[in-house]
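Dear Dr. H.,

I hope your travels went smoothly. While you were away I took the liberty of generating a structure for the chain from your last submission, since the lab meeting agenda had it listed for discussion. I wanted you to have the full record in hand beforehand rather than looking at slides cold. The sequence, exactly as received, is reproduced here:
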Amino acid sequence: MTFILTLLAAIFVLGPLIALHEWGHYIVARLCGVKVLTYSIGFGPKLAGWTSKRSGIDYRVSALPLGGYVKMLDEREGEVAEHEQHLAFNRQHPLKKIAIVAAGPIMNFIIAIALFWVLFMTPSEQLATTIGKVLPDTPAAMAQLPAGEKIVAIDGHEVQTWENINYRLASRMGETDNVSVTVQSQVAEAASAQRTTYQAPVTNFMQGQAQGKDALTSFGTLPWQPTIEPIIGDLTADGAASLQGMQVGDEITAIDDTPINDWISATRIIRDSPEVLLTFTVLRDGEPLQLQIMPQGKKDNLGNRYGQIGAMVAQTDIVIPDAYKNTVVYGPGESLVKSFEKTEQLAVMTVSSMGKMLSGMIGLDNLSGPITIAKVAKQSFDISWEMVLSTAALISLSLAVLNLLPIPILDGGHIVYYTIELIRGKPLPEGVQIAGLNIGLLLLVGFMVLAIGNDISRLF
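The corresponding predicted structure, in token form, is as follows:
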């Protein structure tokens, strides 16, 4: 059942993105006077569809949902009647060819901007960027960032939400230069509040032992977190805690040699200790008791391992202090500006991450394939409609950037070919084009095998 739901979630999120990407190619081709033969969502055998009586275009859904294509009249793919030669793609001016090829990725950029625009216009109550806790032995701790102060800029870029901070820090993955963090005093009024900039030293940021953690945890700055008493409220029957003797009502006071005074501290140690035997000290009926519990090893959607003991906390009522709350509301105009800014930031970060993978600054195990995308899509449906839109926007943006890479067989590679044709005044020799397409195919297959391999390793 989980597999079916994951597949449906992936189809629901990816299907429209693929359809609109191909529609970009399709509509610009028709506007440029090129005859379209087939508009297909998916590859391989035709599952369903129809042929337009007016245009003769074959609209179809095909068996392999890993993309789509728009087939146009082209003399390189078969004989074209003389009266239709002016409608063939290969007969068009290079600028028209570039426009047709670029229209797909541009459509994905437009989708991302539109979805981010809707999300920015949706009022939301978020945690203020006030530092709730600085983790020891992290870049933030070495920079002596003060808890209780508000982060207002990372590397000179203004930030208003923890998501902004997370993206700015994630863009520094693999780097060694100091991260500049500007904080603002919470005591004075906003207009006159003092700002101080700290330099946080990082070495191969988010690599080694930090790999697998999110950017905020790796850097060492956490938002405000409630103090929840570490008292067990419920246990799963087959969880490690229940099997090793933990009971409802037990209060965790220490894990190994670390004193525990709140639930979040306990869960952090448990999550960081998959398949590691831990000694839990608990109070039961006022008497201390020690239990040996080994958290079960689990994997999240990105393949990162974490520990789980199958215990739930008793306290559920959480009140966020006003000082740590921030209601974010943007008007339509400001939302549109911010959606463009976010799209640009994430596109640059995506290209930068690819460059870092190729240069060895970050590992190729960061590459994800369709299985991970499907799992993330399913998870977004479990959270909220906003998360669904956000996931769709991120995937659409990734499709745009990936398709614009200058690799033959991708849209970006074709744009390179037609740009050269524009400069030379004639197309590249057919042999050169075919050789480039074959190399591009090998590269693409290699990346797909690597990405799917990473997906499978995360599963097992």
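Two observations you may find useful: The chain has three domains: 2-33+92-121+381-459, 125-224+320-328, 232-316. The mean pLDDT is 87.

With kind regards,
E. W.
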